Each structure stands twice: as C-alpha cells, then as structure tokens.
C-alpha cells in the first residue's frame, strides 16, 4: 500500500492548512486512516484518526483540527485551523489494513511550519 500526502506549507499563526493523503494498492479495504506528527526532538504523536464513522483526536486538538475521509474511502483529509507555532511538525499519514493480519502503512511525511 502506498500513501501519498500533500498539502505541506508555511503558514502564519492563526492560519489554516489542509492536508490530503491518498492510499493506493491495497488488496483489502482500509479499515482506519490516521494522521500523526513528529516535532523536532519529540516523539511521534497521534493527531487524529478515523475508522468507519468514528473519529478520535489527540489531546487538545479537537476543535481546531478535523479529520475526514473521501467517499471512496482511500483518501483522508486533515483540516487544520487556528494553527499555532507548536503545531510545527512533520505530519505522517497512516493506514491500517486488516487482511490476513493487521498491517500499518505510512506515508513519507509532509512538513508543516507555523511562523509567529
């Protein structure tokens, strides 16, 4: 499974950005799609996830960030509003596929930089 993310950018604090990620090549349906991020010197953390009709968000991100999936189920979006400097990180798209087992796939990461 290949994941291609887009939407990297430099925005000022208070601005918005939308990330997209398209999955291709899966023999099975994609059960869940998630966004993670990793800031310099920090561990990777969950930003938001979506599975079926359910969504979940990292601490204190709900309300500013919104995750959604395209109708075909292989695209995931992350709408980020009121971005803050501390949101600066590399954002990774993740797909969870349940076939013969559970497999995790990762995109290449896309850089989001928020300036003050």
Report on the architecture of this protein.
The strands form two sheets. Strands 2, 4, 5, 6, 9, 10 and 11 form a seven-stranded mixed β-sheet that branches. Strand 9 and strand 10 (102-106) form a beta hairpin. With 116 residues, the chain is an all-beta fold. Helices cover 0% and strands 59% of the residues. The protein has strands at residues 2-6, 9-12, 17-24, 30-38, 45-51, 54-57, 65-69, 75-80, 89-98, 102-106, 110-115. It is globular, with a radius of gyration of 14 Å. It contains no helices and eleven strands.
Short description:
The chain is mostly beta strands and about 120 residues long.
Low-confidence stretches: none
Give the helix tally.
0
Number of strands: 11
N→C terminal distance: 37 Å
Instruction: Note the run of SSEs as H and E.
Output: EEEEEEEEEEE
SS strand fraction: over 45%
Percent in helix: under 10%
- Summarize the biggest pleated sheet: 7 strands, mixed
Assembly status: single chain
Query: Helix/strand/pairing class, anyone?
Result: mainly beta
Provide the residue-averaged pLDDT: 93
* Overall 3D form: globular
Supply Rg.
Answer: 14 Å
């Amino acid at each position: 499974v290949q994941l291609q993310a887009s939407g990297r950018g430099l925005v000022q604090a208070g601005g918005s950005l939308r990330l997209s990620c398209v999955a291709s090549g899966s023999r099975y349906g994609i059960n869940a799609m998630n966004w993670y991020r990793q800031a310099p010197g920090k561990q990777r953390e969950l930003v938001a996830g979506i599975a079926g009709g359910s969504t979940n968000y990292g601490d204190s991100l709900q309300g500013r960030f919104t995750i959604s999936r395209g109708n075909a189920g292989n695209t995931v979006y992350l709408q980020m509003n009121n971005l803050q400097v501390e949101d600066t990180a590399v954002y990774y798209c993740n797909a969870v596929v349940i076939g013969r087992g559970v497999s995790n796939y990762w995109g290449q990461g896309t850089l989001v930089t928020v300036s003050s």
